[in-house]
Amino acid sequence: MKCQRCTRQATHHITEILGEDSIEQLHLCSSCADSYLKLPIASKPASIKAPASAESSAEAEEGPLVAKQCPSCGLRFVDYRNTSRLGCPQDYIEFREELVPLLESIHGEKCHVGKVPSRLEENQRLQAELAKLRKELAKAISAEKYEDAARLRDAIRQMEMA
Q1: pLDDT band at 143 (very low <50, low <70, confident <90, very high)
Q2: Domain limits at 2?
Q3: CA atoms of 58 and 69, how far apart (whole Å)
C-alpha cells in the first residue's frame, strides 16, 4: 500500500476516531507519519478534528460523490464505498477517477500484470513440436505415405496425452 501523502510505501496505519460512528484511517510512510503525529490537534486537517456531528463530516467527505451514479445499474459511488462491491462492469468506467487511485494505493500498481506459469518454456517447446509433427503428417498424407502418417499420428496423440 502506498502512502496517502507521497509515493513511498505506507508503514504506519493510523485510525483517528472522529465521533461515535465516524473514523478515518490514514496510511502513511514513516516520515509522513512522524510529521503528522507531531502536529498539534488545532493544526490537523478539518476532517481529523472532532466534527460537530458524524453526519456533517460524512456529507463533507462525500460531496459530489453522492450524486455520481452508474447509468446501467444505478449504483452510487457512496454505496460502493459502504459495501466495497461494484454492481456491473460499467461501474469501472463510471467511477474510474475514484477507483484508480484507490486500486493503486491498495495494489501499488494501476495495471494487473499477472503471473507467468513456471512451465511456460516447456509448454511452448511442446506446442512447437506438435505443430512440426502436424505439418509432417499433412505432407505424409498428401504424398500417400500412410505408414509414416500413422507413425506421426500416434506420436501426436502421445504428446497430446502427456
Answers
A1: very high
A2: 1-52
A3: 18
